[in-house]
Amino acid sequence: MPGYVASAAEDEDAAPVQLPDAPEFDLVHSANKTATVGGSVILNCRVRHIGSLTVSWAHELQVLANGMHVFADPRRFKPLHQKYSDDWSLRIRSPRVEIVGGPDLYINRGSNANLTCVIHGDYNGPNNVRWTHNNKLVQFDPSRSGVRVTTTHKEDRTISSFSIERALPSDSGEYFCDPDGLHQVKVIVHVLIVYRPYVTSSTRELTILDSSSSDITVSNDHPAAMQTSGQTGLSQSAAASLLLLLSGTALLLGRG
């Protein structure tokens, strides 16, 4: 019959055609993996009867690798495969983010402070590094002047610095370094009001200096009369406690 083509199944003398098995994923050996933040992990994919095909790895529609060819940063992503093996793996090295000196930083009131966030192993560098304080972006907080954020990219790390001029008690709290595409890290800043007492023997006076360079002078003759120079920044409760301390100290000086 014109236009008719015999198939192998219809030809009794033809040898049977052995079709290759279709590729089959082994889900038991291709399970989900749990990794620590900032650590490394190896993902595995086992495919039987793959033949001449290859395995591709992708993340959020971005192809990372196909076979042994890498389309992303080769220092972060590396495909692993042994010849004649059904296992195809992908090793991922995640950048490590840390704030130097964390998780707690102590700063004297009135001094300048610098918070430094380092992203190790991020060879391309994040597009942006955000700093937040009490859920507010510090770069755009109109209630606080004298702050500055600078970010520099080096070959194997990114450094973001956040500087504070003349730290105030209101600058205490949680600060987050939040690089694009990476986990954020936290540091807790404590702004301290430090008092430095000393006694001058010539005037028999006790002087208390706080970290903002303001002073309170108590005379031996009138311990309850406090003369201030500048703003002390003392709260009412702190002033009451300090008055008791000064009264007892002045009494000891009077006996001397």
UniProtKB/TrEMBL annotation:
InterPro entries: Ig-like_dom (IPR007110), Ig-like_dom_sf (IPR036179), Ig-like_fold (IPR013783), Ig_sub (IPR003599), Zig-8 (IPR037448). It comes from the Eukaryota. One of its GO terms (cellular component) is neuron projection membrane. SUPFAM superfamilies: Immunoglobulin. Residues 95-177 form the Ig-like domain. Pfam families: Ig_3. One of its GO terms (biological process) is synapse organization. SMART domains: IG. PROSITE patterns: IG_LIKE (PS50835). PANTHER family: DEFECTIVE PROBOSCIS EXTENSION RESPONSE 9, ISOFORM A, DEFECTIVE PROBOSCIS EXTENSION RESPONSE DPR -RELATED. This is Ig-like domain-containing protein. It comes from Amphibalanus amphitrite (Striped barnacle).
